[in-house]
Each structure stands twice: as C-alpha cells, then as structure tokens.
Design brief:
The complex is a heterodimer of chains A (about 260) and B (about 210). By secondary structure, chain A is mainly beta. In chain A, about 5% of the residues lie in helices and about 25% in strands. The chains are: A mainly beta (about 260), B mainly beta (about 210).
C-alpha cells in the first residue's frame, strides 16, 4: 500500500450547514473556553491530579496578541514517513498488531477546517507497552514500532495517519486500573490559546466507562466525542481498518483591521 | 424554540500522561525516530537580541518538582513582534525566529531549561505597552488541561509595574509569581523561575 496516497475526506453529516461566518467587527479573540466540557483540574478519581491541580481561580484574560498568535509549522518540519507509524520505525518488518488508518478533520467551533496545523500523536504498541524508558509494563517492546508520528492538516483541516491499534494496559491508580486503548493527540491551531492535548478512544472498548482518566470529563457528550467510530468506508480492503476522529478547537472572532475584516 | 446556533463544541482535553515525551520529544523517551525534532533552543546564530537561559522547575502541592512535565513557550522576538500573520505591528519580523520551543523536565532534578532571547515589549490593541514576557503552557501526568501562565523579567520593574495583565492580578502579592529572576552565571544571563501548582505561593494561571 502506498501510505502517502491521499485518503479522500468524507463529508461529515454533522457539518452539513451553511458556510461559517462571523461579523467583521470582532476583536480577533477566541470564543470563551467552555470549561464544563473539560475535566476539572482537581479530579480525585484520577489520583495524580490531586497534587498537580491549581486551587486558585484561573485569571480570565481577554485575548491579546500573545494569545491570538502561535507557532506556525510547515512541511519542512516533517519527514516523509512521519504519518506512517507502520514504517517510521520499522527495522526488519512490520510492527505486530491490527493495522489501522486514523483520519479526520481539525475544525474550529464554527465548523471551519483548521488548515496547515500541526497534529502530533503517540501511543502504546499492540501489547500496551510504550517505547519509553520509564515504562516497565511486562508486555514486550515491539522492535519495529516507535509509537509516534505527526502530520500537517491540509487546506480543509484534514489529516490522516497509519498505525497499529494500541493495546490496553494497567496503571497505578486503583490496584486494578486499566487504560482503554487510546492514542494521544497534540494539536496547535492558529493561536497559542487553542493549544490542546487530548486522547482518542476506540468505539466499543469496554474499558471506556471504567477509566479513571476518561471519566474525569463531567459531560457525557464531551466524553463520547473522544470515541472514534469504526469507519469501514475509509478502510482499505484486505489491509487496514479505519477510525474517524475529528478534533474541534476553539472558534475565533474576526479581526477588525483598517476597515477590512480578517479571518473570514 | 429559537433557531439553533449549531456551534461545535471544543474537544475535551485529556492529560498528556507520563509518556508525553514519546510523541513530542522522542529523544527523551530514549529513541531516535524523526529526521527533524523540536527543541528547547529557540535561537540560531542569526537571531538578534540578548541571549538568555530560562531555567526553572514546576512544583506540586508538596513542593516536590514534577519530573515528567513538559513546557512550551511562545514569545515575541527582540523587537516585540510575534512570528505570526495576525501580528501586524510595525516592529521588525525575523523570519527564522519562530519564537516557540518545548522542553521536558530532567527525569532526576525536574529542571526545565530554554535557550532563547529576551523578547521585546509589545503594544496591545489599546495602544498600551506590555512588559516583555514569555507565554508558557504546561502539561503533564495529573494535569487534566494544559495550564497557561507567563514569565516576566525581574529587571523590567518599571514596565512590569505598568503591564496591563500583571495589574489584573489580585491581590498584588501574587504578581511576583510571574516574574523570573535575572542573574549571571559563567558569563551567561539566566532567568530563574518556580511554578507552584498549589500552596501559598501558587503561580497565577490564566484562562486565556
């Protein structure tokens, strides 16, 4: 299979709406973050959060140029195999595991695609073991699997990569706590205030409802939006299954600048 | 029923976890995979401005350093211009200074360092001068959503006293949690900071 072949973007029925718009009178700031859609800093069921959560109220800051801007990345920052986790660390063969494609769009809250933004991802191997010097889980390292990659979204916000499905693994929270299979995502957006790290889960995983990290999210719908459905239409017959994962970053008001609206 | 607005909802954050290095700084995880890597060195030999080292730790509620934390910084160049199309200020742009870097803390000491330049003052939308500062974003195991804070510079007393963001911080005694302390070491300029996640000296974090 040619991993670099473009997988056609699918029309998401949720996005079947008129072109997004916003009035040309804005301050260029991002929409207020709805923190009820995010886990609270202090979530005692996830024990590590107890000593690492601020206790004072966050100071709300109307966005200045420091928050509206953010780092810009380009194809020069990436290598040709960066979005192919099946090949980017292969030494003497393919990694063990279910071959999958993960694809989707990075959008903002208005439904606009976020173009040319950096998406980074990392994960355990098929046995649930990370290639990390601090991971001591007894499942073996896969000599042909590194477990990380990155991609730049295209003009429509679309990204994809190829990998193997990660395995679940135990961790020290309760004695018998297990992480559902997941892939970590890091996304930039266009401004530093959009910076986001999250995790993608897999449809049907029975560990999802009992995960102490996933259940830090108070809103059921917000939790469900982290679960990627199987996308048979995007699968490659006799090769790879596919999962679809859209990521939504904060929306942004237009910038009023010299009588000319920007950002629309 | 009014018409529906149909905005999408922002994707929920999740912790970066203890193995964040695999994806973002693989060399720290113990392997080499990408041809090009991001780092904690923001400067090139061509970068203009005063070379500085930013050095500090992130402490938990017991005062212990986080040894698995990852910081990113975003800053203007020495002229006070961000390398981003939304910054249309008259200050000079430097194409090869991205103004962004990331660093993982040392696995033993918890020390985080950046090699960069001291940013210039910027002017906000209301035309006010903002004191030179570096924007900081913090993720780690146990941090459910990235924490935003800033670092100001101890030798900018007058500019800090007039800074519109520092002046929002109440009570004023908390403002010092955002100021890095300048010193000289082996001929280099070092700014030291401590980010306290909890306690009487808890750092000011922003909802940006």
């Amino acid at each position: 299979m040619n991993a670099q072949a473009r997988i056609p973007a699918l029309q998401d029925p949720r996005l079947n709406r008129p072109e997004p718009f916003s009035p040309p009178l804005g301050d260029g700031g991002f929409f207020q973050r709805d923190r009820s859609m995010h886990p609270p800093a202090h979530a005692p069921g996830y024990k590590s959060s107890v000593l690492r959560s601020p206790r004072q109220a966050l100071l709300s800051l109307e966005n200045s140029i420091s928050e509206i801007t953010g780092p810009v990345f380009g194809h020069n920052d990436l290598g040709p195999l960066d979005n192919d986790l099946i090949r980017n660390y292969a030494k003497d063969g393919d990694p063990v595991g279910e071959r999958i494609i993960v694809h989707g769009r990075v959008l903002d809250e208005t439904g606009r695609g976020v173009p040319n933004t950096l998406v980074e991802f990392w994960q355990a191997n098929a046995g649930g073991r990370y290639r990390h010097k601090k991971d001591t889980y007894l499942a073996p390292i896969d000599p042909n699997f590194g477990g990380c990659g990155r991609a730049l979204t295209d003009d429509t916000g679309y990204y994809y990569f190829r990998t193997v499905k990660p395995g679940p693994y135990p961790w020290r929270n309760y004695v018998n706590s297990w992480r559902p299979a997941h892939i970590h995502f890091s996304v930039f957006g266009s401004g530093f205030a959009q910076r986001l790290i999250t995790q993608m889960y897999f449809e049907g995983d029975p560990l999802i409802p009992v995960c102490p990290i996933l259940t830090t999210i108070p809103d059921k719908d917000a939790l469900d939006r982290l679960v990627a459905p199987l996308d048979l239409n995007a699968s490659t017959p006799f090769d790879s299954l596919a999962y679809r994962f859209d990521i939504v970053l904060r929306g942004q008001r237009s910038t009023y600048f010299e009588n000319r609206p920007e950002g629309n | 029923m009014p018409q529906p607005l149909n905005y999408l909802k922002e994707t929920a954050s999740q912790t970066a976890g203890p193995y964040v290095h695999i994806g973002l700084i693989p060399a720290m995880a113990g392997f080499d995979i990408f041809e090009k890597n991001f780092s904690n060195v923001l400067v090139t030999p061509n970068t203009s401005g005063e070379r500085i080292t930013l050095e500090g730790k992130v402490l938990d509620g017991t005062g212990s350093p986080l040894r698995d934390v990852l910081l990113e910084i975003w800053q203007a160049n020495a002229s006070g211009r961000y390398n981003h199309p939304a910054d249309r200020s008259a200050a000079a742009l430097e194409e090869d200074f991205r103004g962004w870097g990331r660093a993982g803390s040392d696995f033993d000491s918890g020390l985080v360092t950046f090699e960069t330049i001291k940013p210039g003052a910027i002017t906000d939308k209301a035309g006010r001068k903002c004191a030179p500062h570096v924007n900081v974003w913090i993720v780690a195991r146990g941090i459910n959503i990235g924490l935003n804070t800033r670092l100001y510079f101890s030798d900018e007393e007058a500019a800090n006293a007039a800074d519109p963001v520092l002046n929002l911080v109440e009570p004023p005694v908390r403002r010092k949690t955002l100021v890095a302390t300048r010193s000289a070491r082996d001929g280099k300029v070092v700014y030291s900071f401590t980010i306290n996640l909890q306690g009487l000296e808890e750092t000011v974090f922003f909802d940006v």
